[in-house]
Amino acid sequence: MDQAETLRRLAAQKPKVAEPKADQDIRIIAVTSGKGGVGKSNVTLNTAIALAKRGHATLILDADMGTANIDILLGMDPRLNLGHVIEGKASLFEILVKISDNLYLLPGASGIMDPGYLGIQNLEQLRKDIGQLESMFQYVFIDTAAGVNQMVIQALKGSDRVLLICNDEPTSIVDAYALVKVLYKQDPEAFIQLVVNDVAGEEEAEDVYGKLRAAIQHFLKRDLDYLNHIAHDDVIARGVILQKPFMFTAAESPARGHVEALAEKLESTLADRGGKGLLQLFQRLIQP
Ligand SMILES: Nc1ncnc2c1ncn2[C@@H]1O[C@H](COP(=O)(O)OP(=O)(O)OP(=O)(O)O)[C@@H](O)[C@H]1O
Ligand SMILES: [Mg+2]
After folding, report:
1. pLDDT of residue 16
2. How far is the CA of 276 from the centre of ligand 2 (A)?
3. In angstroms, what is the span from residue 144 Cα to ligand 2's centroid?
4. Which tens digit of pLDDT belongs to each residue from 7-64?
5. Are 246 and 253 in contact (CB under 8 A)?
């Protein structure tokens, strides 16, 4: 089957993205930022580890299709990844890897930038697999690429909650504002919460929150929710170099306390509203 025929088949078979019914049990949390390199992947991974340690079945989907690196942060080298699923060369369960108790990863592809390239052969199987994943997991974390592109926006629209990561650099704050502006335009219902990362303490985090919130209130006439801050802490950088996330290794440390607090806040509030479900998310990701 050639590419054109595959696409025609997809167009014929695939229903348009269903309006999310917001009644699914699974909770999808996207982690994103305006500027790159502000800590998305580390926040994703370590918060997911914290929730898994609290007994919740948790899945990480590495949706940074250009430079996926959750696997690298874990010192893993998975043979198959989402790129193979998109190309029709593997099923979701063939790429699923166990990280630790209660924690699994759908590895991302490196070098795939164009979600328009679809070779998925067996949509029925894909739907069945998504349904099965839905019944296996309570939380799904999506690590996105930085910035505003259509794939990121689709991932954010398909999530129940968006954690916006920002640090104290003016460029990071300005870029976060730009992302919020685009997201609210495309999805006025988006539920965005700020996580200020890599700061000296609460005061600095509040300062960042204040600046970003003021811009959003003034120009977009919307408010911004604050979730938590994570201190600048060498255990994070060390974990990156050792390819062992600090939530697996470090004893008490400021960042550990903050990530645990963040996970607890998510745990206590994620049940507040129903979830949109995994099927609509995958429909968005593979048919933006
Ligand atoms: N709280 C922190 N304390 C100290 N260092 C940090 C902290 N958060 C992140 N870092 C450092 O910043 C680097 C980048 O983090 P990370 O890869 O998670 O960012 P990212 O937003 O996912 O980047 P990209 O946009 O490239 O995907 C890490 O390698 C780590 O060294
Ligand atoms: Mg990253």
Report:
1. 46
2. 24
3. 7
4. 445 444 444 444 445 567 899 999 999 999 999 999 999 999 999 999 999 999 999 8
5. yes
Choose the residue to mutate in 41, 60, 204, 238 for probing ligand 1, maximizing ligand atoms within 8 Å of C-beta. 41
The whole-angstrom separation of Cα 135 and Cα 132 is 5
Q: Whose CA is nearest to atom 18 of ligand 1?
A: 39
What is the number of structural domains in the chain? 1
Within 126-224, strands assigned E span 139-143, 161-166, 192-199
Q: Specify which residues 194 forms β-bridges with.
A: 164, 226
Residues in the chain: 288
40: containing domain = 3-14+21-286
Sequence-ordered list of residues with C-beta below 8 angstroms from that of 96, at least 6 positions apart, any chain: 104, 105, 106, 133
Distance from the alpha carbon of residue 251 to the mean position of ligand 1, in angstroms: 20
Binding-site residues, ligand 1, Cβ < 6 A = 33, 36-42, 64, 146, 197-198, 230, 232-233, 236-237, 240, 255
3-state secondary structure of 146: coil
- CATH number, residue 223: 3.40.50.300
Residues of the chain with pLDDT under 50: 1-4, 6-8, 10-20, 113
Q: Identify the burial level of 103 via C-beta atoms within 10 angstroms of its C-beta, where 0-12 means exposed, 13-18 middle and 19 or more buried.
A: buried
